[in-house]
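(Structure overview)
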Amino acid sequence: MKEGIVKAYQHSFLMSDELFDSPYDFFKDCADDLEAHVNYLTPYILRENIKPQTDDGKFNLNYLSVDYCLGVDLPIYVSKEGNTKRAFIIAEDPLRNPNDERIKVSQEHTLLSTPFATHLDACRKQLKEYWDFHDALLNNQFNVYITDINKIWLKRNNVNKERIPGDLAINFKRTLQAEIELINPDIIIVYGKKSAMAYDDLNIPFNGVLKAFPHPSKSANGTWKKLFQITYPGIEKSCTAQNKVAYMIEQTLISA
């Protein structure tokens, strides 16, 4: 699995075959340690060791600049013995908080995580909209692979995040297609309007089921409220994590 992920990401990055070995060992250790969030240090890779595959000079300069916060999420595959199906979940990009003190001290690096920090038990408990759904999938015969449409999050303080150059976006498509071929999912689940539109634009061949949900975060509660009103007329549904998860797992099991 790790070898396949590395090959997929080499469509988007100039990097060695062994670059992800240490980070993935670290993430696995964190997943097995319920106290890993205590005194947690954000893992990183030197920027020059994982360069984006783009000819856009301005983007490359900003990518290497310590004035820009840079994040890359490594995709994560969560499995349960005996499960026979595969769900492939796509988010937008590896969002970071530039004001996080743990990030500030390492801003000269490429800061690593997994989507929704799934490797940390504390984050799984805190981000219930995501983990409770992923856990429900695990308990309904699905192993779960989580990744991003855009593989880089690059942002300077008080400025919008950097636009992904066209040639790099094409390489992200190649990476995503390689990931889909690696996992061979029964269902692809897309979080949020931006990710859904981006995935549609990629036009990647896929013969399984595709489901697009509003982004599970609280910032999309307005969309969730409208969806609940349409889906459950006459029934008041608040935008709680529990209600979002119940809806997503119900729709997933119906579709797949």
About this structure: The chain has one domain: 2-255.
